[in-house]
Every structure is written in C-alpha cells, then in structure tokens.
Write a structure and sequence with these properties.
Number of helices: 5
CATH superfamily of the domain at 244-374: Acid Proteases
Strand order of the largest sheet: 6-7-10-5-11-4-3-8-9
CATH architecture of the domain at 244-374: Beta Barrel
CATH class of the domain at 244-374: Mainly Beta
Distance between the termini: 34 Å
Strand content: 25-35%
C-alpha cells in the first residue's frame, strides 16, 4: 500500500536560531536544497497512522522495565503525560482493549506519593498518582524521555467511550509546570511519507540533496492510509520555509502556546470573514477545523450547503469550493479545495467541508480550532527557546501555501 507524502509536522523545539545554527549556512527559505551537505544528527522519532480515516493522532509508548505498552493521544492543549492504571474503574479505563499500566510489574517504577487532578478542558478531568520510571524509561520509537514525571490515572472522566488510546502525551509546555513537556522538549515532529520509498527528498535524513529537485508529492485521496512521524527536532532536510506566528494578544493570563491571532478567513466568491479578538488554535485533539456556530453558518450559506441525513453532513456542489485563505497576524496560509473538502458521492460532484461546530467552553469562545486535518498540510512547530509557534512547508510543496 502506498502512503502519501504530506506536510504534517508538529515540532516542539529548543533549536534556535533556525538559520544561523545550521551547518553549511542553510536557510530554511531556500527551496533549491543545501549549498553544502549538512551533517544533521539523527532525530529521535516514532511513526503512527494518520490521514482522513484516522480519528486521532496516537503514538505507541512504553513505560518502565520490563516495558509496558500504551497508546497515547498527542495533545497540544495539555502539558503532562498520563496513562490509565490498573486501579482505574472509569468507563474510559474499562473500555481499554489492552492491559492497563501496572506499576508493581516495573522494576524502575517510583511512586512520588503525590496525587494530582488534571483539567484538560471540555469537561475532561483526570485524577492520578504521580510516578517516574527511571532514566530513559518512557519511550516512543527512538524517543526516550529522561526521568519524566507522569500520572498513573485512577479516574478519567469526559473522554469518549472505546477510545483508541489509554492516555495523553501532552505537548503544551505550560509555564511553571514541573512535569510539563518543557522539561524534555527538544522538538516533536509529525510528517507523512511514502512507504517503501527511500528517495532522499522524501525521508530527508542525513542525505545529500545537492543537485536534486524536490520530489513532488502525489495527489492525496481521502481513502488512502497514511503514516506520520513524530520526532524531537525540526528536520531541515524536510522543511524549507517557516512562518513564525506571534502569540495571541487577546488571551493574557492563559497559556499562549500553539495559538496565534486570527484576522481573516476567505473562500473566494463564497465568504470573507474578518475578526477581532479571535484565536486560532492548533489543536491535535480535534480532527476537523472547529468553527464558532455563527461563522460556520455564514460559510454554509455562501457554499449553498444543505444538510444531508444520509452522510450526516452539510453538502454542496464541489465546484463552489475554492481556495481557503486563513490570515493570521503575521502570515497567510492558502489551502486548495481538495485539502479542506471531501467528496461524498460516486459522481464526485458533491462535497462536504472538513469543518465542525466548535463547542469549546474556553474563554474567549471566539476561536477557531485548527485540527489535524488542517495541520496535515504543514509542519506545525513550537520552538521552545524562541517560545514561538510556526508553520513550515516541506520540500516540493508550493510556497503559495504560506505567505
């Protein structure tokens, strides 16, 4: 089965500055490749299934020695790690198809004798005993976390039933959190690639790109299985341009990470929405682009969309869908129609938008939550040292996606 190369990269990075720190004086805005072959170190990473048919971004993790496996949801809105423990009897825990974490079976497990309640928002509440499992004993692929504190949950409420994960791997470096990802962050990166293809322009790891033209990614189809990579580092073999985004100005007192100000959303000939005091949040806990109710109504009206009971979506003629332009304070991104719509009939003349109503209770409520279907089109980066979020383009992707 062939996988599709796309641009979903999620990075939490302490590598800065992005240009001068690289060997060979490589500039991320250079689309022609490296002037000299840089010697990049291997970047720890883990692969996981992604694409439109996957409902969540989930990585397989290991705890302790001997290792106990658990699938964890990647979460840009949360700053810690928790895994369901054997003493948990919440519906979330009892629905697990795999064994729960048993600290008694780990020779490196250390009980810190602290209890903590995590509020993950949207009425998701986790109560946990805090543990560590020794040096380098939380793993994900080739990623190893050093003496990481995590929660062994005994109560998990507000999560969906029958989840495909047993805990959460938080990427939000919450200020002042003693067990946040700020403690272990270099970078975390998500990106699609083609199975069985060893072309350097695809895998881009310790290879020579000099004199090569970037490989053009194949056209994505919505029924194609895909694989993404989550790694600790910004892989400059893959990303050639980064647009850095300012923290939101209308959310003082809240964690600003993975967010920026939203100024305008436009679909040519359909809708032109302008905003003040509105947040754009890059949110891996949702799949679609989650839009405030009033904004979504205007989009449906512009697309002449009607609700279809059979597919449970608002449907419109595909020809009405044009480029989607999302303007932040510092940069604008442009997605072609096929990146934000899905065809819903065999004749492929009717489409639905990859939008959903935002039901967040977070303040301000005027926020767009740009979920994984949006993030798959870019490298989504948080650079820890410069404390800034960015969107990056992959080699072979048109620069018109990010201006």
């Amino acid at each position: 089965m062939k996988y599709i190369l796309s641009a979903a990269i999620l990075a939490l990075s302490s590598i800065s500055p992005v240009v001068n720190a690289l060997p060979g004086a490589y500039s991320p805005s250079d689309t022609t490749g490296y002037p000299e072959t840089p010697d990049f170190p291997s970047i720890p990473s883990v692969n996981f299934p992604c694409g439109y048919e996957e409902k969540n971004w989930v990585i397989k993790s290991g705890f302790g020695n001997p290792e106990q496996s658990a699938n964890l949801l990647i979460d840009t809105t949360f700053g810690s790690i928790f895994v369901a423990g054997v003493m948990c009897h919440s519906e979330f825990c009892e629905d697990q198809s795999s064994p729960l974490y048993n600290s008694g079976k780990s020779s490196t497990s250390v009980n810190l004798h602290q209890k903590k309640t995590f509020n993950l928002g949207s009425e998701r509440i986790v109560k946990a005993d805090m543990y560590t499992v020794g040096f380098d004993d939380i793993t994900a692929g080739s990623i190893k976390l050093h003496n990481q504190i995590f929660g062994k949950a005994f109560s998990v409420e507000g999560f969906p039933s029958h989840p495909n994960y047993a805990g959460v791997f938080g990427l939000n470096p919450v200020t002042g959190s003693s067990n946040s990802t700020a403690e272990y962050g270099y970078s975390n990166m998500l990106g699609k690639r083609i199975e069985g293809d060893t072309d350097p322009a695809v895998f881009g790891r310790n290879v020579t790109l000099k004199g090569r033209k970037p490989k053009k990614p194949e056209k994505r189809t919505d029924d194609t299985s895909e694989v993404c990579t989550f790694s600790r580092g910004i892989d400059y073999n893959l990303v050639y341009k980064i647009g850095w985004l300012s923290f939101p100005t209308c959310e003082y007192g809240k964690s600003p990470f993975w967010k920026t100000d939203l100024e305008c959303v436009k679909i040519n000939g359909v809708v032109d929405l302008k905003f003040t005091n509105t947040i754009a949040e890059f949110d891996t806990t949702v799949k679609d682009i989650h839009v405030p109710h009033g904004d979504l109504e205007k989009i449906h009206q512009g697309l002449k969309a009607t609700y279809n009971d059979q597919v449970k979506k608002y449907v419109f003629k595909c020809c009405y869908a044009k480029d989607l332009e999302i303007s932040f304070k510092d940069h604008k991104v442009t997605l072609p129609a096929e990146a934000w719509t899905i065809k819903v009939d065999r004749l492929e003349d009717h489409c639905a938008a990859k939008f959903a109503v935002s039901n967040t209770t977070a303040i301000p409520k005027s926020r767009w939550r740009l979920g994984t279907d949006f993030m798959e089109n870019f490298y989504t980066i948080f650079d820890q040292q410069r404390a800034q979020t960015g969107l990056g383009l992959y080699h072979g992707q048109s620069s018109s996606y990010l201006t």
